[in-house]
Amino acid sequence: MKKTIALLLLSASLMTSASAQQDPKAGKILDQMSAKYQALNAFKATFTQTLENDAAKVKDNMSGDITVSGQKYHLKMNGQEVINNGKTVWTYMKAENEVNISDYDPDEQDISPSQIYTLYKKGYKYTYVQETKEAGEPCDVIELSPEDRTNQIYKVRMTVSKTDKSVKSWKMFKKNGNRYTVSIKKFQANPPVDANTFAFDKAKYKGVKVIDLR
Fold first, then answer.
1. What domains are defined for the chain?
2. Contacts of residue 158, Cβ cutoff 8 Å, sequence gap at least 6
3. E strands within 22-136?
4. 143 and 129 in contact (C-beta within 8 Å)?
5. SS3 of 144, please?
């Protein structure tokens, strides 16, 4: 589950000193971006992800979608679903027709999808990198770096739209050589959600094997 959650992340880079000052230009952009998403009751995003590792000669592409509301989320990607209602996490593997149930513990995850828009506010340094264009849209590029040097994620480069402060893409770098690039293809603000959106309904998965790890 940690690997799946890690695919949707934001976290880390460029500042070499833990005592370095935060970049005010980057901070202003991040605050505007964070306010945009926190003002929503919920959002849904369709994305593509590329995993690359030059040493291992790996390049894999996949797509998925995620619905987020507060601390709750429902992620679908690569034959797997991860559903979190803020207390319980269901991880369903389609190929095995199996679901694992566990208690939600944010400390056990690299970064939760419900934390990505406020991540920079605690435990991270950030710096402004450059202006760029993504799909013809002017954007700002910002890098984040964790103050905890034991973090396996050492750099994340985030691209934020200048027009509406939405996150267009991010690239996460890990110490094992893996690079994850996530690009948002479609975004829906305030989609209809209810309690069933963030709960696993066993009746919809005929013959599913349930493994309760709580």
1. 2-212 (2.50.20.10)
2. 10, 141, 142, 143, 144, 167, 169, 170
3. 43-53, 58-69, 72-77, 80-84, 88-93, 98-103, 124-134
4. yes
5. strand
What is the Cα gyration radius of the chain?
17
Closest CA to 204 of 81, 85, 89: 81
Q: What's phi and psi for 97, nearest 5 deg?
A: 50, 55
Task: Characterize the bridge pairing of strands 124-134 and 80-84.
Answer: unpaired
Walking along the chain (214 residues) 10 residues at a time, the average pLDDT comes out as 46 33 89 92 92 94 92 91 94 96 76 69 90 94 90 90 92 93 92 94 94 94
Chain centroid to CA 130: how far? 22
Q: Which residue has the tokens 């690009």?
A: 183
pTM equals 0.79
Query: Do 169 and 59 form a contact (C-beta atoms < 8 A)?
Result: no
